[in-house]
Amino acid sequence: MKDSAYKILAESISKFFKTPQYLILFVSDKCWMKCKHCWFNEEWKCENSQGKTLTFDELKNLSESVKRIMFLSITGGEAFGRDDIVEIVNLFTSNGKTKRFQIPTSGFLTSQILAKTERILISNPGIPFRVDISLDGNEEVHDNVRSCKGSFKNATNTIRELDKLKKKFDWFDVGVITTISNFNQNIVEEMSAIVEEIHPDGEWMVNIVRGRARDARAGDVEITNYDKAQELIRMKREKNAAGNHSGHFTAKWLSAKNVVRRKVISDILQNKKEGGACTAGSFGGVIFADGSVYPCEMLDKTYGNLRDYNFDLTKMWNSSKGTEIRKWIQDNKCICTQECFLSTNILIQPQLWPSLIYERIKLK
Questions:
Q1: pTM for the model
Q2: One-letter-per-residue 3-state SS of 203-241
Q3: How far apart are CA 268 and CA 333, in angstroms?
Q4: How much is the mean pLDDT over the chain?
Q5: Rounded Cα distance, 127 and 93, in Å
């Protein structure tokens, strides 16, 4: 009965909203890093990429087919590597279309990131915007994981400079994200101290390696180390209430959600969590830089390519193929540690709501 209800709910969400409301949009497949933990690597691109990156005009066509987006993550590759990234953002934020958006970055090109971020903020007053910078260890470990000398110094400098920018724009937020892998799992205490020193008033988030990493050793992680990072984040939040999401009225709910999500991930890694009730393909979706549309980054099932649908995302999303994919996800009790979709899953999993409310109440 429950499985049938989730199938009906997934299809109803898709039909009601017409297009994904939590959209991960890859605007580039190029990056100056060769991160050992990254699933978006040469092997994945060789197997899945269908060709040329979407042009600005093609992205414009896509934006015109979307009426509303609750949350937009503009990513890559390195999204800030596009010369037209500010104009791309504006395509999707015009007329209040996008309610909240973010850009994750390696933080490598500090001056370029700062200049483009400020232009985005000036162009989009009042729309909550967040930049998340990756930081995966101390200087030695981070540069090794990223296969890029100087990447730690640049990333930490970018964090500090963006935090200064945050003081000028009250709808702007800055986050630091660490991907826990085999290469940094034993220095989580040191990582916590580093983040506390360079980003004392902002949120530290931890992800965990997923998919087929560039270096197969990356996924060998002890769950106790991931849980230790969770505890360090809890201590940071209790010490400093400013160490949470900020910049809009739902920010504290998002920080509470992150606590619940980390617990869910821990349960998944320990096989304590049942699959199913996933919003991938209904509330959330992914568009890769070549125009191919997927329900989730971790699935090999695709709706097709936007170029074959004249960039009509509504038509593609609600096609018979879309219905087939949504049914497959629920029938197979799909489950993974993809943080974005675990976030939206909380919306349709009532058993998690008490924990969410409890964590929100704890925040001042």
A1: 0.94
A2: EEEEEECCCCCCCHHHHCCCHHHHHHHHHHHHHHHHHCC
A3: 13
A4: 92
A5: 8
